Amino acid sequence: MNELTTAKTMTVKEVAAALNVSEDSVLRATKEKYPEIVKNGKTTLLTEIQVTAVKLVIEKHHNLRTTAELPKTDLEMMLYDKMVSEWKDRKIEELKTAVSLMQPKAESFDKFLSAKNSQPVGEVAKMLNIGRNKFFAMLRKDKILDTNNTPYQAHMKYFEVIDKPVKIGNEIKNIPVTMVKPEGIDYLAKKYSLTK
To answer: Within 13 A of 180's CA, how many CA atoms are on the CB side?
Structure first.
């Protein structure tokens, strides 16, 4: 790589033409970065490494993105390639992390949606990562369930109420229990999944 980056040289004028900036801009950036190579009365030659460094200095002071969008040197292309590769690796890791965090919830959601029968409200609350009591309170506040935790008529298409026999003392009473239909699970997931 050393042979590649040191064998090629450009004059200040050539660099200015390639970057579409003034020679003074290139000379100032060269003096800032490499003061030892600029000598009065002598042609200043810049290696590929130096041209890349000078371009980066100029970019801080000029908006070269519109005039010199593409890399001009092999080293510059390698630097961009490295930056893009690192960015891709970071994005892939971020996406893998997001997928691993969503996977259990997605599997649970799929399981509930594929169910042919209704599910208890408490189970739906678990699926949405909302506490059971908090979820019932939210449904009552939003006028989906009444104070007895049974659905209002407008929301009956998402619920069913079944009687559950409960032994109280010596007698058995039927207590109404609200169940969520599969389409209700979808409705509630869309309504409450972002409000956790």
So the answer is: 26
